[in-house]
Write a structure and sequence with these properties.
Blueprint (H helix, E strand, L loop, with lengths): L29 E2 L5 H26 L2 H4 L11 E12 L5 E13 L4 E19 L2 E18 L2 E17 L4 E13 L4 E8 L2 E8 L2
Antiparallel strand pairs: 1-7, 2-3, 3-4, 4-5, 5-6, 6-7, 7-8, 8-9
Length: 212
């Protein structure tokens, strides 16, 4: 699935490859001032939150831990491995939608009370609009992603994902950009927070947010 694991359950330090998005005010694919670091950070986090929510739904559906890890009889000593695929679509806050499809593998170990999901797929951003400080940002594009999640005794103890792609963005104040992005997110169970790092439209991203 493209994830290099440095801990048993798959947490890793991943080198983020620099990606390009023109910072000029003229030229192909660009009109008006560039996105600020604050704007790029906002959009990166919002896009990541949406994908995080979809993957959370998929993990819950594929691994209903309360049922899969609790049986009427003695737990099986053999881990159960299944493969699956899914498609989900979410409406964006100010219009448009984001569609995610993927496939992966789920390993449930009733004896150890663990469930692990490795999954990868694509994301389609279709006129997905968000508003911030009275400015509407509308994005269209696509991305590839991969992710790993692990639960122990029904608690999420490890999660990470990588997303890279390209998109166009227009703003209600007259700007237009064609950009690329590459992001890496790691979940910290001690603080229930996600650290998001990488590049988004030629801006360096390093944001932490609490996972709800």
């Amino acid at each position: 699935m493209g994830i290099r694991r440095t801990l048993r359950w798959g947490l890793t330090a991943l080198l983020i490859t620099a990606v390009a998005c023109s910072d000029e005010t003229t030229g192909p694919g660009t009109s008006g001032p560039s996105l600020s670091t604050s704007e790029a950070g906002f959009l990166a986090v919002e896009v990541d939150r949406t994908l995080d929510g979809i993957l959370g739904d998929a993990f819950t559906i594929q691994a209903p831990v309360s049922g899969a890890l609790t049986t009427d009889g003695p737990p099986s000593a053999v881990p159960i491995t299944t493969t699956f695929s899914f498609e989900r679509t979410r409406t964006c806050p100010a219009g448009g939608q984001l569609s995610v499809s993927g496939s992966g593998q789920l390993i449930v170990d009733p004896e150890e009370a663990t469930a692990e999901m490795s999954v990868a797929g694509t994301k389609l951003i279709e006129a997905c609009a968000r508003e911030r400080n009275e400015v509407v940002y509308t994005m269209s594009g696509s991305a590839d992603w991969d992710a790993f999640w692990k639960r122990v005794d029904r608690e999420l103890v490890a999660a990470e994902k990588n997303v890279s792609g390209a998109f166009s963005i227009s703003t209600s104040d007259g700007r237009f950009k064609e950009c690329t992005f590459e992001l890496h997110a790691v979940y910290d169970p001690a603080t229930a927070s996600v650290q998001l790092t990488g590049n988004f439209c030629d801006r360096t991203i390093d944001r932490t947010w609490t996972r709800g």
